[in-house]
Amino acid sequence: MNLNRSIAEQGFAIIPEVLRPDELTKLFSDLSQSDLPRSKAGIRHAMKLPSVAKTAHDSRVLGMARAILGAEAFPFRATLFDKSPTANWLVVWHQDTAPPA
After folding, report:
1. Per the structure, how many domains does the chain have?
2. Residue 1 has what pLDDT?
């Protein structure tokens, strides 16, 4: 799969198996046991969790981001949205923005 072509043609890319199942299990466990404040919507400031920060800086993840956004891209925020059958809500079309650093 050509990541850049998929993004250009479809606006997204599905990239299977970027992380191993054991890595996903660890992330899920850490997020589930985290003492970070959780709302109905999920967890903000998840980058404070070491396993989330490690994943965000992982060369496999960062490489994909840099392939699309450029070599200077870096992770600065992580938010977990809990959208499951038991925690779901309507989100109307919007664009997320971040304040300038």
Report:
1. 1
2. 58
